[in-house]
Specification:
The chain is mainly beta. It contains 2 helices and 32 strands.
């Protein structure tokens, strides 16, 4: 066989291999194009199919599409996430969104234009304010009741179930002035706080009781004092000191108030008597929420940076209803009257509220930033979306 003949045969074999590879490539391309056409015809989302397949391989689908869910928001910044009158709200740096939990309809999309938006919700009303600024507004689940400006910079604010709004602002006559307004913006209460700057404030459901914390420096150390009073009083009825510790949140349950600190938890009954649930310095606060019965659910560690957490449900009397320890590290939590759900790593774990028996464990997206129980449903916030997780076992 001549050299030229061998070379021609070698080239022919190479060309056959090349043509075979090209045929395979075009077959694959044709299949992909056909698949894309089919998905276009049936309005399927390729990315969602990929996510579903990936999650199916893990054995769990982490979220489900129901109605209009997932809801797309205009911003990914999470400034607040919770419930208002049976609806879910999502506050971003641009908008306050109130979403019907049944069908995913956005009932209210309020463009607030606030530099530092903060929200407080009580029943069917929400007060939205610019912390450090002047603007604040009152909202129901479906409409904006009013928008107004304070005389001085707003430190914090609270709302009642009757629509009364309490504003704590900087003051020309004292360190802080607290004013209470009704829905018609009539002033119902005014009080100057001379001790320090108010960092947290709460109103009871009727808008007649107040609890607020004021911070001042004594001996080069910060001290927090919590005051309680009726709006008909001229002076506080209760005064409770917390040296060094900070008050993170105040909330009423009936006539009693919860005091959540960075390293303690207390309750105050009838505005006058304190019950110490966890002494100052005994815990390191991780997260907290209030269940559908307005009981405090608090997650804490024995020390800052601990990898295992504890959760306790606290009654307004100061007694612990139930408690569990050695739980995985908690990123966020939410609760109904019967179920506590925690976000830990890449899992959503639900427990019975009565004894913390595990009910359900689900794979969660790493980008989940907040969760919210509303009835038997659990809503999640991730990136610029609000969705419902498949929570069928939590009924």
């Amino acid at each position: 066989m001549s050299t030229n003949q061998r070379e021609n045969e070698r080239r022919e074999k190479q060309n056959q291999k090349t043509r075979k590879k090209q045929r395979i490539m075009w077959i694959v391309i044709a299949v992909v194009i056909a698949l894309l056409v089919v998905m276009k015809l049936f309005e399927l989302d390729f990315s969602s199919i990929g996510n579903a397949i990936a999650n199916k391989e893990e054995g769990i689908v982490s979220s489900v599409s129901q109605g209009n869910y997932p809801i797309s928001l205009t911003s990914s910044k999470n400034a607040g996430f919770g419930s208002i009158s049976g609806n879910v709200y999502a506050l971003t740096d641009l908008n306050l969104n109130i979403i019907n939990t049944s069908d995913g309809e956005v009932k209210l999309c309020y463009e607030h234009r606030l530099s530092n938006p903060v929200i407080d919700v009580n029943g069917g009303y929400a007060v939205l304010y610019d912390q450090g600024g002047l603007t604040y507004s009152l909202h129901s689940a479906s409409e904006t009741v009013y928008t107004d400006k304070a005389d001085n910079a707003i430190l914090c604010a609270a709302v009642s179930q009757t629509g009364n709004v309490a504003l704590a602002t900087t003051s020309d006559s004292a360190k802080t002035t607290i004013k209470v307004y009704n829905k018609s913006l009539d002033e119902k209460f005014s009080f100057d706080v001379s001790y320090g700057y108010v960092t947290a404030i709460a109103m009871d459901s009727r808008g007649t009781r107040l609890a607020f914390s004021a911070v001042n420096s004594e001996g080069a150390k910060l001290k927090t004092v919590v005051y309680t009073m009726n709006i008909s009083d001229t002076e506080p009825r209760g005064e409770f000191e917390y040296p060094v510790s900070s008050v993170v949140d105040l909330s009423f349950n009936g006539s009693d108030a919860y005091v959540v600190g960075n390293d303690f938890v207390s309750t105050i009954t009838s505005l006058k008597k304190e019950h110490k649930v966890f002494e100052q310095g005994s815990i390191s606060l991780v997260s907290y929420c209030y269940d559908s019965s307005s009981r405090l659910v608090v997650a804490f560690a024995e020390f800052e940076g601990a990898t295992s957490n504890s959760v306790a449900i606290v009654k307004p009397s100061g007694k612990v209803y139930s408690q569990a320890s050695d739980l995985p590290e908690i990123k966020a939590l939410s609760a109904s009257s019967s179920t506590v759900t925690v976000l830990s790593g890449n899992e959503l774990i639900s427990y019975k509220a009565s004894n913390f028996e595990e009910k359900q464990r689900q794979i969660a997206f790493e980008s989940y930033s907040a969760i919210q129980h509303i009835s038997t449903k659990v809503f999640v916030r991730y990136q610029s979306f609000v969705d419902i997780v498949d929570n069928k076992d939590n009924n």
